[in-house]
Structures are given as structure tokens and as C-alpha cells.
């Protein structure tokens, strides 16, 4: 993350009007922000390559991705603190590509809040309004208006009693609220937040997450938040944008991205604990498609997708273009732990094609059955993450507190419903139709 000493609040252009070739004129709805063909290089490294990204107006959009994937650069391009090498940045109805940061109608809050240490809370919050009033005596805000807006922002963020304090006399959470107040006092149409919660401890973070969601609801403007914390990403946004290597790999609601990850990267990055992923061989079978993994005869996963499942749909497996291997994924929270009775065989997972009990004695509906031996149990309060090593390497399952808790060394078996299996192309990593699709 790249921080900046630049003042974080920039003026609002509330009177933005649609340009002749703006989205409204083209018959579409006005987005909050639209990036079109945006690229950015530092030296020879392309850090941003976004053919098109629309941030819906009024959405709480979260940009998430691993460190260095270009999230902050994307935010800074929207703010106007970085100039893209190619492409257009549209904010509301206007092409803002060449508009100075202060006239874009955006405010940005940085990771370290970048407060002025020698100014009081009130002076920090009113700083940019006073600057605007000084530079623009005719159209800038009056003293009364500044006072009104500062009072309103302080009330919204519970800062009334702290107005006279300096940043050094505030806790991390209080500083964060001052940073937010300073940004919203401008009434920006787009509020940009660059990892605003990362300086807070776990408890404050949780509280601040809820505060931010409430604030967004009250303001009704477009919020774009950057984080590398995927829990934050899933829980806060109405819209999620996953980035990797400067590119947008998927965008949608958090639920869509979680349930139907577009590729192996998204599958592994979004969700905690991470999705279990195994490479399996694919072969045609009279009753469908057979999947196998592992090498030893008694230590392998063997599965049958009934009728070939949707994997065979579109002819993917029917003709010469059939993949001979796929990556199979399942989420630890989607599996049900079934502890084998003493004496039951523990090896050989099976993918049952019917509702009948699978060989080995595991009861339940059709699904993937995986076995292994417990080697780590992570207690998290209301659940435990049980890590196992088994037929096809390492895998994890989430067990709710109150359910039977396995101990280290126990044999464990899980069943994953067919509907919760994910398949990905081994070469491209792209999602393939799932068995239950
Ligand atoms: N001013 C700069 N000069 C050169 N390289 C830069 C500059 N700013 C960022 N980079 C590089 O661009 C890439 C993307 O950086 P960016 O800060 O956008 O990533 P990020 O996804 O926000 O990372 P983090 O989560 O660690 O903050 C990184 O490889 C970074 O080293």
C-alpha cells in the first residue's frame, strides 16, 4: 500500500452534469465510477490493466486481492492522484480522466488517516472546507455552512466531545473516525477508503466495520473500499471486485463470488478457511464421468458424476477436446464430518452417484466422500477447523461447536454434497460447469 501526505479530503462537485457522450446520453444508467481501458505502468511493470470495471452508483464496492495486486493504484487512479497511461475514468456522468483530484467529487481516506498532528479534531475536519472557502470566496462555503457541516459530521461519527483534542490525544479508533469525518464533510459523491481499518485492533475493527456500513446507508453515496482482508471484503460490500496481478478477475455480489468463483485463484483467495482443491484425472465411464486422484490402489479418490454431469455438457468431455484432468474444489464449511465407526476402512474416497450409502458405510445423499487422519484442530470459539491428511493430500473441514469434535490422530470422513463441488480447468484455471449445474 502506498500512502500519501496529500490532504485526504478533496472538494465535491455536487453540480456534476452529464456530458454529451456520457453514459446517460448513451442510454445506460449512470455508474458510480467506470474505468474503461485503464492501464498503468511503473517502469516496465504493468500494475493496472482494466479493460472495463463498473462500480454501481450507491454501492459499497470492495476491491480485494493479495498485496501488490494494484488495489491502491486503482483507487488512486479514481481519486486522480495517479494518471492512467491509457483509458478513461468516468465518475458519475462525467469523464474525469483529466479533471484535477479536487474537482472530481471524491474524498479519500488513507490507511494511516493522514491527520494534521498540530490541528485539533475540529480543525482537521474543517480544513479542506476552509481551504475551499479561501480559494473560492464567491462559491465556497460560508463560515456558518462550514460550522454546520462539521457539526453534522461530528454527530454522525460520535466525535462531539473530542472536537478540541489533537490527533496525539486520540485512540486509533477515534483517529479513524476523524479521518472519515474529514472525508464525508465534503459530501463526496464517491468516498474512497484505502485499508481504513488496518490500523485498528481486532475488536475495534469489527465495530468499525459495522459503523462504516451504517455510515454508507446514511450517506447513500458510492463507497469504494480497498482491503486485502477477505473477511472484510465478504462482510462489508454490496459489490465485490477481486483483483490479481493488476487485473480484475471477478466482480459481483459477495454471495455470487463466494458461491461461484470464476477461477482457481478466486476460489482459493475468497473464503476462510480456504477452499480445498485437488487435481483429479477424468475418464469417461458408461454411467458418467469418473474422477480419480492419488496413485496407490487403496489410497485414491474415485468418483462418478452421474451421466457425466454438466461437465460433459457442451461436448467438453465427449469428443477429442475433453480435459483429462480437472481441479476439484470444495469448501470446508460445505462438508459434513462423519466419524467412521471403529473397524471401518478409512481409505478411498468415493463420489456416490446415488442417494444410497457409499461403500465404507457412510450414510447420506449423493456427494463426494473424502477420508483422512486428523493432524491439526484449530479452535475458533463457535467452531473448529479440522485439518486432515488423507487420500488426496491435505484438506480441512469446519465443525460447529457442539458437534462431535475429533481429536488429533482420529480417522475422519467428510461428505460434500454434489451441489457444493466446484470444477476448474487445470490449464486455464477457469471454472467449469459443476456436476449439479
Ligand atoms: N510509485 C510507485 N512506483 C513504482 N512502483 C509502484 C509505485 N506504487 C506502487 N508500485 C508497485 O505497483 C504494484 C501495485 O501496488 P499497489 O500499492 O497498488 O498494490 P496493493 O494491491 O494496494 O498492495 P497492498 O495490499 O500491499 O497495499 C506493486 O508492485 C507496487 O510495488
Automatic annotation (TrEMBL):
It holds the Pfam family ABC_tran. Residues 33-270 form the ABC transporter domain. InterPro entries: AAA+_ATPase, ABC_transporter-like_ATP-bd, ABC_transporter-like_CS, ABC_transpr_MalK/UgpC-like, Mo/tungstate-bd_C_term_dom, NA-bd_OB-fold, P-loop_NTPase, Transp-assoc_OB_typ2. Gene3D superfamilies: 2.40.50.100, Nucleic acid-binding proteins, P-loop containing nucleotide triphosphate hydrolases. It comes from the Bacteria. SMART domains: AAA. One of its GO terms (molecular function) is ATP hydrolysis activity. It comes from Parafrankia colletiae. PROSITE patterns: ABC_TRANSPORTER_1, ABC_TRANSPORTER_2. This is ABC transporter. One of its GO terms (cellular component) is ATP-binding cassette (ABC) transporter complex, substrate-binding subunit-containing. Residues 340-359 are annotated as: Disordered. Keywords: ATP-binding, Cell membrane, Membrane, Nucleotide-binding, Translocase, Transport.
Amino acid at each position: 500500500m502506498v500512502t500519501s501526505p496529500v490532504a485526504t479530503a478533496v472538494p465535491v462537485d455536487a453540480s456534476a452534469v452529464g456530458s454529451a457522450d456520457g453514459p446517460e446520453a448513451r442510454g445506460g444508467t449512470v455508474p458510480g465510477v467506470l474505468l474503461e481501458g485503464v492501464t498503468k505502468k511503473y517502469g516496465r511493470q504493468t500494475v493496472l490493466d482494466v479493460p472495463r470495471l463498473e462500480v454501481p452508483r450507491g454501492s459499497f464496492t470492495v476491491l480485494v486481492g493479495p498485496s501488490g495486486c494494484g488495489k491502491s493504484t486503482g483507487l488512486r487512479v479514481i481519486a486522480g492522484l495517479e494518471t492512467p497511461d491509457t483509458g478513461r475514468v468516468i465518475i458519475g456522468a462525467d469523464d474525469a480522466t483529466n479533471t484535477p483530484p479536487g474537482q472530481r467529487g471524491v474524498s479519500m481516506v488513507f490507511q494511516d488517516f493522514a491527520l494534521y498532528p498540530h490541528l485539533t479534531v475540529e480543525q482537521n475536519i474543517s480544513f479542506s472546507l476552509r481551504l475551499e472557502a479561501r480559494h473560492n470566496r464567491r462559491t465556497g462555503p460560508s463560515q456558518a455552512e462550514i460550522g454546520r457541516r462539521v457539526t453534522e459530521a461530528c454527530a454522525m461519527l460520535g466525535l462531539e466531545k473530542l472536537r478540541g483534542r489533537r490527533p496525539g490525544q486520540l485512540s486509533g479508533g477515534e483517529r479513524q473516525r476523524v479521518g472519515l469525518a474529514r472525508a464525508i464533510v465534503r459530501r463526496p459523491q464517491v468516498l474512497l477508503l484505502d485499508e481504513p481499518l488496518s490500523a485498528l485492533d481486532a475488536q475495534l475493527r469489527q465495530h468499525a466495520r459495522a459503523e462504516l456500513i451504517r455510515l454508507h446507508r446514511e450517506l447513500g453515496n458510492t463507497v469504494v473500499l480497498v482491503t486485502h482482508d477477505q473477511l472484510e471484503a465478504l462482510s462489508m460490500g454490496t459489490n465485490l471486485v477481486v483483483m490479481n496481478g493488476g487485473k480484475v478477475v471477478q466482480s459481483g455480489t459477495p454471495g455470487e463470488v463466494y458461491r461461484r468463483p470464476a477461477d482457481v485463484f478466486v476460489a482459493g483467495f475468497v473464503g476462510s478457511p480456504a477452499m480445498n482443491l485437488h487435481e483429479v484425472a477424468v475418464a469417461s465411464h458408461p454411467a458418467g464421468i469418473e474422477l480419480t486422484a492419488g496413485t496407490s490402489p487403496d489410497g485414491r479418490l474415485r468418483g462418478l458424476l452421474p451421466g457425466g454431469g454438466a461437465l460433459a455438457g457442451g461436448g467438453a468431455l465427449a469428443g477429442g477436446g475433453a480435459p483429462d484432468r480437472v481441479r476439484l474444489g470444495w469448501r470446508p464449511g460445505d462438508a459434513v464430518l462423519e466419524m467412521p465407526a471403529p473397524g471401518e476402512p478409512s481409505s478411498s474416497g468415493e463420489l456416490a452417484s446415488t442417494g444410497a450409502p457409499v461403500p465404507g458405510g457412510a450414510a447420506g445423499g449423493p456427494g463426494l466422500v473424502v477420508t483422512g487422519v486428523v493432524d491439526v484442530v484449530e479452535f475458533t470459539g463457535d467452531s473448529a477447523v479440522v485439518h486432515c491428511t488423507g487420500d488426496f493430500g491435505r484438506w480441512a473441514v469446519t465443525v460447529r461447536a457442539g458437534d462431535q469434535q475429533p481429536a488429533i490422530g482420529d480417522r475422519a470422513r467428510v461428505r460434500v454434497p454434489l451441489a457444493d463441488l466446484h470444477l476448474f480447468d487445470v490449464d486455464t484455471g477457469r471454472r467449469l460447469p459443476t456436476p449439479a449445474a
